[in-house]
Structures are given as C-alpha cells and as structure tokens.
Amino acid sequence: MDPTLLVLGALALSGAAATVAGCAEDLESDVGSQSNPNSQVQLGPQMGNIHRYFNKAISGEPVSYGLYVAVAGAVAWALINMGLSVPIALVVGAGIAAFIHGAYAVSAYLGRIVGQSKNFGQPVYMDVVLSHLGPIVGHGFIAVFCMLIAAYLATSMLGNPFPLPLVALIFGITVGAIGSSTGDVHYGAEREYQKYPFGGGVPVANQGDIDIKAETGIRNGMDSSYFCSKLGGPLTGLTFGLTVFLGGWGDIIGEIVGGDLISKSVIAIIVGIIIVTITAYLNRVIEVYARKKYGPYTDR
Amino acid sequence: MSHGGGGHAAELYPENQVILFGAILAIVGMYISQFLPHVSMLIGGLLAVGATVAGANTTRRVAAYGLGTGVPSIGMVSLGLGVISTLAGVLLAGVAISQFNLPNELLYGIPIIVAVVSIVLGFIVGKLTVNPIGMKIPIMVESMTKLSLMGALSILGFCAAYAGGFYPDVIIGGAVKNGIIGLAFIAAGMAILHPFNACLGPNESHKRTLLLAIACGFITWFIFSIVKLDILSSVVSILLWGIVYREFVNQSLKDACCVLYTPEIPKKDM
C-alpha cells in the first residue's frame, strides 16, 4: 500500500485516540477534583463546608499524566523489546500505570483530608475512597491507553525520532495540560459554585464556600463527573483531538509536497501558521458573537 | 521554628540527618550498581530510594512556608536541576579523561562529581530565586541546593540501577538514549513532590509524610524493576511498598478526627 495513505491513516487514528484520551482524562480529573478545582475543595472545610468530594491532590494534571503515560510507555517498550505482541504490551503498560495511579490517588485523598481533619472536623469517608477509586482508575486507564496508542503510532508510523518512553512522557504532559486548561473551566468555577449566579466568577469572599449538596443527597465527585460528561469532557476531547490532528497536517503536507528536509520543514511551518491563523480568527468570531448575544454580567 | 503558611508539627528527625543518610545510601547504591551489575536493580534501586525520601523531606521543609500550589513546581525544579547535573557530571568525567589525559580511575568518582555539580547548580539557582526573583523564604538557597543534590542522586541512582553502572558509555547507552532518564525524571520527581503535596495542611505530621515518602520511593523502585523486567526486584519492591503503604493508611485513619463509611455530614459543634 502507498506509504502516504498509511501515514494518513495513522494520523487519523492517533487523532481519534487523542479525542477519547482527552475526554476520559477530563472526566477522571473531575471525579477526583484534581488540578484547579482542587484548591477550592481544599478550602471547603476551612470555611465550614464539610464535603464528600474526592481530594485527589497528586500534583498538577500535566505532571501526574506525564508519570502515568511514561510508566505505561516504558513498560510497553520493555515488553515489546522482549518480543511480546504490541497490543498486549500496550494493555499491560496501561494496566501498570493504572495501578500506580490508584496508589497515588488514595494516598493523596488520605493525606489531604487527614492533614486538616482535626482542626476543621472533616471526616475521612472510606465509602468515597472505595466508590470513587473505580471510576478514577478506569477513566485513567482509558486515557493512558489511548495516549499510549498515539505515542506508539508517533514513533512507529509517523517518524518521531525519539524513543517510546520519552514520547509517552511528552504526550502524557500534553494530555494533562489540555485536560487541565480546557476541562477545568467546565467544572471549577461553575459546578462548585452553582448556588451563586451564573457567570459571576469566584470573588475572594466566596472562596471555599463550595456546594456540598447535590440534586439529591450530598454531592460527591461522581456527580461532578456526570455533570461534566455532557459538555466539559467531550469538549476537552475535541480540543485535544483537533490539536493532534491539525498539528500533524503540517508534517504530512510537507512530506507530500516537499523535496529536501529544509523545504519540507518550511512547508510544515507555513501550514502550521495558516492553521493557527484560521483557528485564532474563528476564536475571535465566537467570542464577539457570545459577547453580543449574552452581554456583560449584570447583578440584577 | 515559625512557618509562614504551613504551621505544621515538629520534625521527627533533623533535616540534615535525613539528607546525609539519604545521600550516603544513594551513593553507595550507585557503586553497588556499578560493581555488582547483576544485583543493580535489587540493591541499587533500593538504596536510590534514600535520595527520593530525603528530597521529599526537604520539600516538606521548604514548602511549609506556604508554597501551596508551588509544591509540585519545586519538585520539578529539583529534578530538572538533577537531570542537568547528572548529564553534566557523567560527560564531564569522560571529557576530562579524553581531553586532559587524566587517569581512567576518575570514572570511579562520577557519583561524587555529579553530587558536586548539582550542589553548585542548586546554589546558583537558589541565589537567583532570592535576588532577581525576590522570594522571601529564608532557607531558599539552602533548600534549593539540597533539592538539586537529591534530584541528581535519585536520577543517577535509578538510571545506574537500570543500566547496571554509572560509566558514561553504560549510562548514555543504557538509560539516556532509550529515554529511561525521562521516566527517572518524572517518577522520581513524583516521589519527591507527592508526599508533602498530599499531606500538607494544619494537621500534617512528619511521621505520615515520611511514611508516604518511603512508600512513594518504593513504588518508584517498583516501576523501574518492572521496566527492567526484573522479577525478583519487582516482587520485593511491591511487598515493601505494600507494608509501608498499609502503615501510612493505618496511621492516617488513626490521626483522622473520625472515619465514616456512610454518606452523612457530622453536626457542627459551633
């Protein structure tokens, strides 16, 4: 088969894998309230709000996902070198990463909750630990496995010159960064502060005054994930999938058109600039449209 | 000692004692990895845990000044300095031998050279954080120096354990070109930054943080054992991790104000 077609297929597959990974990553971080919303969950008990959120303060999402995907990538790389078939090696690698993820998640919850338990009367909810661990590790496994597929395709099909463990580390940091920057917008300020008027942001006076009641009963991390699975998760997936997919087009067009390495690189850079210009223009159009339609926030 | 934002309990062991202990363990581990390559992961990996535990302990001390979200950042800085010093130290020894006709025995001193480079680098970066950047933490220079040293020792420790030695040709071929140093960067970094990042708060205790630091060190060792496909080390490391982690969980449950198994919010006393 024509190698260009194979490369196009690999690019499409890694874009699709990145979409799934971004979505799963965001929903996973919402179950555990990782990253930006975490500081508000941490402040909750200090403001008298005893909560049942999962306080997953492993580290920022880029660092923690860098770890999981690097672990998965290194294990898979070792197993492939040993002669194991690629799909099984990728699954085993992602499985080891899921175990590491679970271990760090539980210690983060226990550490953070017990760290302010006696002063502020925040109990340790063992049922929260046990019920949330499954969704956290499960979503994490999906995200890590999909990123690992993308990293493997990058090294084996798309001509990335670096070894798999290193590419996996970089891809993990990327998915964590996108999940943190795109996904948290849909969870942090709005979901934790639903009792305040929409669009008002979080003034300092309200910090830590998080919602502890759900639609029925007491709110926990799974309610947040359910809420975010409507818009936040898919949007994160779309963002990350588009980043990977559009980012790859520069190289592909350079590969098809260009002759030597310099002209290939120049074409790739020009295509990249064109894509960035178009997306920046579209962003501006959407922003202006939203401002005209909804106007500034008014405290009626 | 007064702490800006953390205000945590007293230290179980003095920091310098932990640093000294961790550094000696890690350096001994590197020599064992070099001279007994068949047990490099089993013993070298185990002793490299000393460096991550000491690094986590220093992170606790400096981050207790109220860094909050800066805890992961300072851990990453530590490992960033560590990667640079490790590569610089390993290559410096090789260059010194080939360019200045120094004796080959200089290669035995690579762990010491790496340690010296990392101390110098950490001291410079610590000075920079105080002077142009203007951080007001009194122990900043000292802590950056220690963190840089521990970052370098943990990276070289785990890389030497993986590659089976710290000679330039062994470590460049066996742990740098295949990207394992990237895994050492992030996994050892997590072992250094996670314990205090997880345990911080007004009721933080040194015992819990240290237990978690040891558990995180063991799980990092486990990761490297798995990647090296070393079955004996994997089993030993996961068993040791299980023992320490269990102790951490029990201690946490003991220190909590109450442990509940049902969805209920306790009544406020106020």
UniProtKB/TrEMBL annotation, chain A:
Membrane topology listed for this record: Multi-pass membrane protein
GO terms classed as biological process: methanogenesis, from carbon dioxide; methylation; one-carbon metabolic process
Principal subcellular localization: membrane
Biological classification of the source: Archaea, Methanobacteriati, Methanobacteriota, Methanomada group, Methanococci
The keyword Cell membrane is annotated on this UniProt entry: yes
InterPro entries: MeTrfase_E
Signal peptide region: none
Keywords: Cell membrane, Membrane, Methanogenesis, Methyltransferase, One-carbon metabolism, Transferase, Translocase, Transmembrane, Transmembrane helix
Protein name in the entry: Tetrahydromethanopterin S-methyltransferase subunit E
Cellular component GO terms, alphabetical: cytoplasm; plasma membrane; vesicle membrane
Catalytic reaction list: 5-methyl-5,6,7,8-tetrahydromethanopterin + coenzyme M + 2 Na(+)(in) = 5,6,7,8-tetrahydromethanopterin + methyl-coenzyme M + 2 Na(+)(out)
Quaternary state and interactors: The complex is composed of 8 subunits; MtrA, MtrB, MtrC, MtrD, MtrE, MtrF, MtrG and MtrH.
Automatic annotation (TrEMBL), chain B:
Metabolic or biological pathway, per its Swiss-Prot or TrEMBL entry: One-carbon metabolism; methanogenesis from CO(2); methyl-coenzyme M from 5,10-methylene-5,6,7,8-tetrahydromethanopterin: step 2/2
A single GO cellular-component term on record: plasma membrane
Localization (cell): Cell membrane
Membrane-spanning residues: 12-32, 77-100, 106-126, 147-167, 179-198, 210-243
Catalytic function, reaction form: 5-methyl-5,6,7,8-tetrahydromethanopterin + coenzyme M + 2 Na(+)(in) = 5,6,7,8-tetrahydromethanopterin + methyl-coenzyme M + 2 Na(+)(out)
UniProt membrane topology term: Multi-pass membrane protein
Parts forming coiled coils: none
Keyword Translocase: yes
InterPro entries associated with the record: THM_MeTrfase_su_C
EC code(s) of this entry: 7.2.1.4
Keyword Transport found: no
Record NCBIfam families: mtrC
Subunit structure: The complex is composed of 8 subunits; MtrA, MtrB, MtrC, MtrD, MtrE, MtrF, MtrG and MtrH.
Pfam family, one: MtrC
Swiss-Prot/TrEMBL keywords: Cell membrane, Membrane, Methanogenesis, Methyltransferase, One-carbon metabolism, Transferase, Translocase, Transmembrane, Transmembrane helix
Family of this protein: Belongs to the MtrC family.
MF terms (GO), sorted A to Z: tetrahydromethanopterin S-methyltransferase activity
Function according to Swiss-Prot or TrEMBL: Part of a complex that catalyzes the formation of methyl-coenzyme M and tetrahydromethanopterin from coenzyme M and methyl-tetrahydromethanopterin. This is an energy-conserving, sodium-ion translocating step.
GO biological process, one term: methanogenesis, from carbon dioxide
Protein known as: Tetrahydromethanopterin S-methyltransferase subunit C
